[in-house]
Design goal:
single chain, 163 residues, 6 helices, 0% strand, flat
């Protein structure tokens, strides 16, 4: 089977499937949600599983790496829901207002509006990157404690039983 034939079938399916079209419209309307959910899934499930399969000399380093990956996914998802989705809605309203305003540079200029949205989104991400990184690192220790509860050794259990 030719690659071009497969690509053409996939393209036709994407173009004609109402479910795929509805999903793509939803993603296009607010790509931050799709990005956050994808990043959360990859960082919280796939990456820790891959880290778990790797050989580590120290088991604590492996656990710390896995907790760090889960922390990154959680912070990405939380910041998107709490900060970037409302910000994107606000930017969209401002850009519509600029597009319809008379006598401005943005009036009827789609390219300038796309650039405005892009620069504004990137500026906001740069503004929040340090607090998000601090929150990510602060979350690693509590995640390690909750994900990897260590069972007491046999001798410690016997001592606790008589205490």
């Amino acid at each position: 089977m030719k690659v071009n034939g497969v690509a053409e079938r996939v393209a036709n399916w994407i173009g004609k499937s109402p479910r795929v079209q509805a999903a793509l419209r939803g993603i296009n309307k607010n790509p931050a949600i799709f990005s956050a959910v994808t990043a959360f899934g990859l960082a919280s499930i796939l990456r820790p599983a891959a880290i778990g399969a790797l050989p580590f000399k120290n088991d604590k380093d492996k656990k710390c790496s896995q907790a760090s990956a889960v922390s990154a996914g959680l912070i990405e998802l939380a910041s998107t829901v709490a900060i970037f989705i409302p910000l994107n809605r606000c930017i969209e309203k401002v850009s519509k207002s600029l597009y319809n305003s008379k006598g401005t540079f943005y009036e009827g200029n789609n390219l300038a509006l796309r650039q405005f949205k892009s620069v504004t989104n990137r500026g906001a991400k740069m503004l929040f990157i340090i607090p998000m990184s601090l929150a990510r690192f602060a979350l690693v220790k509590p995640l390690m404690d909750s994900l990897f509860k260590e069972k007491p050794k046999v001798a410690e259990r016997k001592l606790d039983k008589w205490a």
